[in-house]
Design a protein that fits this description.
Layout lengths: L11 E6 L11 H9 L2 E4 L7 H6 L5 E2 L4 H7 L5 E5 L6 H13 L6 E6 L8 H15 L8 H21 L2 H22 L9 H14 L2 H4 L7 H16 L14 H15 L11 H14 L4 H25 L1
Parallel strand pairs: 1-4, 1-5, 2-3, 2-4
Helix pairs in contact: 5-7, 6-7, 11-12
């Protein structure tokens, strides 16, 4: 028998992988070509989300979990077998094929790993939403949480994020961003259950997308912006149109730290071109107010500046403590 004859051809095995974060049925063109040209299409999971769509497209899929040797035998004579991989990626099958290939005693079919769908940027956010949904349903603690009960954690996580940024710790920054993101998803999941005004994480995301597009006419519209100052002007103008506020102080949260509050008010006054004299009074509070306003005018975040100075003070305290312990 000629080694190149169809009877001797070892055939081809295609391991087809898909992402559960992409809607079932949305496969790449090479994947559809491989499926239609295959002599055999196999899937070990009869509940695989792709199967109804494959069968609707006329692809016959056998529910089977062959061994590596059985799959090699099925490809004898130049046949092609496509394996629609389960979520685990068929490790037992691939390990078995690797052992056969390494033995040197089996003429192996051509092996191909074919990704049929890819994760889009942000796809892991879908995993977070699914995990949060399950936790909300099944966790005794999470299932009882309310917006009010979680409020303190939002503040704590925001402060920890700022600390990671100021420390320059990239790993800590990634983790703290995740903790802040969890707060958004958690509150959104709770909001779905409100009997009067429910909303979901999709509503939250949709709202901020619409806001960003509207406030960036130089990106998504016909206006132009050459400098950061131009961008800020667009932002403030569109924000004013949206909010239609009667005072520049509206929307400034009074619960934020005092220095940050003072600086924010000063920023609103300066941006609006108002001439508002600082209130005069006795006590450290008025002195701190004047310092915060001065810092904002100089482009300095007084809250961040004080934290930086406080960290130096902390280090000095620790150094003094160390000297005392060794004296």
């Amino acid at each position: 028998m000629n080694a190149t004859s169809p009877e001797a051809a070892p055939g081809r095995i295609v391991l087809l992988t898909t992402s559960h974060r992409v809607a079932p049925g949305l496969l790449s063109w090479p994947a559809w070509q491989a499926l239609r040209a295959a002599d055999t299409v196999l899937c070990a999971d009869g509940a695989h989300p792709q199967l109804p769509y494959l069968r609707e497209a006329g692809i016959a899929v056998a529910e089977a979990s062959p061994t590596a040797q059985e799959l090699v035998d099925a490809c004898a004579g130049g046949r092609t077998a496509v394996v629609v991989a389960t979520g685990e990626g068929e490790p037992a099958l691939t390990d078995g094929l690797a052992r056969l290939a390494g033995s040197g005693r089996v003429r192996m079919p051509e092996l191909e790993l074919l990704p049929a769908s890819y994760d889009l940027p942000g796809a892991r956010l879908l995993d977070l939403v699914q995990v949060m949904d399950r936790i909300r349903l099944e966790c005794p603690w999470s299932s009882r949480q309310t917006h009010e009960g979680l409020a303190k954690y939002g503040i704590e996580e925001a402060y920890e994020l700022v600390e990671a940024i100021e420390a320059g710790d990239r790993e800590e920054l990634r983790e703290e961003l995740g903790d802040v993101l969890l707060q958004v998803v958690f509150h959104s999941r709770i909001a779905e259950e409100d009997p009067d005004a429910p909303f979901s994480v999709d509503d939250v995301a949709g709202g901020i997308v619409a806001k960003l597009i509207h406030r960036h006419p130089h990106v998504f519209g016909e206006e132009t912006a050459e400098t950061p100052e131009d961008v800020k002007e667009h932002w403030l103008r569109t924000k004013a149109e949206e909010k239609r506020r009667s005072s520049v102080t509206e929307g400034v949260p009074l619960g934020q730290p005092g220095l940050a509050l003072a600086a924010k008010l000063a920023s609103r006054v300066r941006t609006a071109g108002l001439d508002v004299p600082l209130p005069q009074g006795d006590g450290i509070g008025y002195e701190l107010l004047a310092l915060a306003v001065r810092a904002e005018a100089d482009g300095v975040d007084p809250e961040a500046a004080l934290r930086a100075a406080a960290r130096v003070y902390r280090d000095a305290i620790k150094e003094t403590e160390g000297q005392g312990s060794t004296g």
